Amino acid sequence: xxxxxxxxxxxxxxxxxxxxxxxxxxTPEAFAEAQAANSPILVEIAADWCPTCRRQAEVISTLQDAxxxxxxxxxxxxxxxxxxxxxQFRATRQSTLITFRGETETARAVGITSQNDIAALIATAYxx
Length: 128
Known about the structure:
Blueprint: H1 2-21, E1 24-25, H2 28-36, E2 40-46, H3 51-65, E3 73-78, H4 83-88, E4 96-101, E5 104-110, H5 115-123
Parallel strand pairs: 1-3, 2-3
Antiparallel strand pairs: 2-4, 4-5
């Protein structure tokens, strides 16, 4: 019984940590607003069950906490529940990261998890 309770508690903590790392859910309105403002944008196409997506979220959170991506609009597309939007972005897999500067796509990558690689991808959204 104790192990079951401990395991359930551990899963609850993990679920809370994952939700704390979640960014703003993708909406066409939020995306259009960020594009109109010529903001740097990261569209993160992720699934809650995906370990690569969780690692990407951790790295993005670390970059946010370090103040390295100030002003970046981060919109999360739920790969399972927003498949139509994922298709609009031509994303065939979860763990896809796409950056924009306003209306211009600046870079995309699938499955990257290194902090340096993610930081370099995001940096393209700041180039004018």
